[in-house]
Batch of 2 targets.
Target 1
Amino acid sequence: MKKVVYPGSFDPITNGHLDIIERASKIFDEVIVVVLVNVDKNGLFHIEERVRLIEKVIKPYKNVKVESFDGLLINFMKERDTKVIIKGLRAFSDFEYEFQMALMNNKLDSSIETIFMMTNAQYSYLSSSSVKQVAKFGGCIKGLVPDDIIPDIMRKANK
Ligand code: ADP
């Protein structure tokens, strides 16, 4: 069985992330979305809240599940017996960081492969931080994130 992990901050999940999840779910037998605690990023949503939002929107995909992890991704992967990471690539600016991460993970464990999936053109400008900014200033986030979680995001951003 081919399993893949899709790691990220998902603060919050956007339609760009969901597009990668949906496409990955057609290629792999199982997709594990993993919300990683990022020491460099101050989040809006708590890790458990991010997981709950993801749970809401992955319901239609029977081979997708979500977990959180505080630690090195490769340790999570060892625990789950997975060898493949999938990442989304938007602009050239993503490339340098993702390239470094992929090489670092491979250096830490040479059996790990990272696969990159190009963003869907319609989501190439979309990031969690831009969604948070728009929501904070009362802008419309319809089309940027799944409809089901719009109220949760608006509520949190305007607290
Ligand atoms: P963000 O940069 O939005 O905060 P994350 O840190 O949660 O996102 O990123 C998790 C993964 O999802 C990364 O591989 C990132 O490149 C990818 N990703 C984020 N937004 C998009 C998008 N709009 N289209 C494709 N991939 C994306």
Target 2
Amino acid sequence: MSPLKRNDPSFTYSSGSEAEGSSPSRKRARNDVDESFRGVQNIKVFIVTSKLGNDEFVALEKLAQSRALSTGAQRKGLTVLKLCNSPEAADMIVTNIRMRKRFERTIDWKLAKGKAVVTPEWLIDSVNLGTPQACEAYAAIQDLHETTEENCPEPCEKCENAIDSDNEPHDGPLSPTTTEVDWVSHELEAAPPKCDISKLSYLSNYCCQRPSPLKCPNQELVEQLAVIMRFRDLEGEAMQMLAYEKTIATIKAFPKKITEDTLEEFSKLPYVGQKTMTKTREFLSLGHILETKTILASERYESLSLFTQVFGIGASVARQLYDVHGLRTIEQLHLFYDVDAIVDKDEDVADPDEPPEFRIPHALRLMDELNLKIPRSEVESIRDLVMSELEKIEPGYVGILVGGYRRGKQESNDVDIVIGHSDPSTAKAKITGLSKKLTRRLYKKGVVTNVMHLSSFRAPNAMRTAHWDSLEKALTVFILPPNLKNPKAPRVHRRVDLIFAAPQSFWTAVVGWSGSKMFQRDLRRWAKDKKMLKFDSTGITHRWDSKQIVASSEEDVFRILGLEYVSPEWRNADL
Ligand code: DCP
Ligand code: MG
């Protein structure tokens, strides 16, 4: 059956994206609109991103997004173009690729033969002319010319309940369906959309409303304050630490250099109190903060911060090692944890199928490597390798690099990847249990050397406990295979976190794991204080009945929370 002749009963014109079970008023609104457009027909369009520039893609996507066209005799029918995220679900595939070989690398050939595969001009002309065009002149691949013609949606001549011909076709964006998550596939491959920072304000009480760059005009002051913040953390003074984190977040968004001239304005910003003002004045006159200098010179700070660099050692264990066992150096820690004996023994008894657990002795042995920063190119290579292994398990998995990389950091401390599946109807099943399957596979390839058990990850590492969510994840130690072009290049162990998210959690997982930590914290605070909602990486839910509101893109997360969109490079609210 031609797509144009198919009535799609699932089609709704809701303006939100709440999951089933949303409020009665919203349900009523959906039904009202549904009723008036009964008989509307959809063409589902999938746009292949390869060979399209980002701008071109975004422009095409905008053209196709829930665009209503008129069809049929006296243009009485209504056809709605709907973007979809998988070629399987599409009626039309729009591509800039012309060569069969290249196209086959992107879309399964058998699948393509069942679709109309057209050039972007089809989309442009159909929208400009206000009616879907015959495909003949737009076939993208020579060998698919015939099947494209066969599968081309025919103009609808007898649309039931056709709209009145006096009515102009709707050309405004009609929001996607409510229950299925519509994947915005370009976001998976291209850079995230930019935000308009003039709509944000550094005066806000919430980090998630301020533009916070990677490096701010007062970065040196931030770094001096961060030493005091870290010291409070090491001493277990959580509230004091948070107070410094909040002040640092405020300064990160303050766009002016703090000088005698701007000090007055600075003093009125949120979370800037007397203590901060004293320290800032010190900094302005001396070039450093006195307390920072004292902390940096202390043996206690040096040892505790060294110890907490070892994966698995949090502040309270570090204090015990220092206070109770009298340890001061990493060499002493090596002896204390009997690193050589334990790691060697573990290697001898390693299970060939199951990656060994990464514990403190292993972390100590690899400490120097794991503390090396990871350049963006290596972050990308790690992502590519993970994705190619997933592809071998089953096609359709998608992955986004999140964490500091997504916020624009040139060098990361670890690699964070959120993984989903592009077929919304089966994604949940395809994600469940994937963590184990994938890590085993990567272990057998020698790429993953260890995994952290989630329980040991929970405490006492404060950084992580605060971020805990119920998403499935694999926290791994990873090493890229030898570089064939440069076999002598050193191979370095890296920390790689893989986060697995079903469609209803995918975009909140992306936002949550993109951070920064304080930005994410304030999204939660904002949702709670202002919207009666609960936000975390797992999803957004009503506080009163725990019903989930599903986001269909990163921007949608902000929209649901009633916030201006902030692109990742402006979410650097931490150091
Ligand atoms: N996160 C959080 N709360 C925490 C720790 C982390 O919300 N207590 C979120 C925000 C972080 C993201 O998880 O951006 C990833 O955590 P990382 O520790 O990997 O931090 P980054 O990726 O931001 O920086 P880097 O890995 O370079 O240190
Ligand atoms: Mg990270």
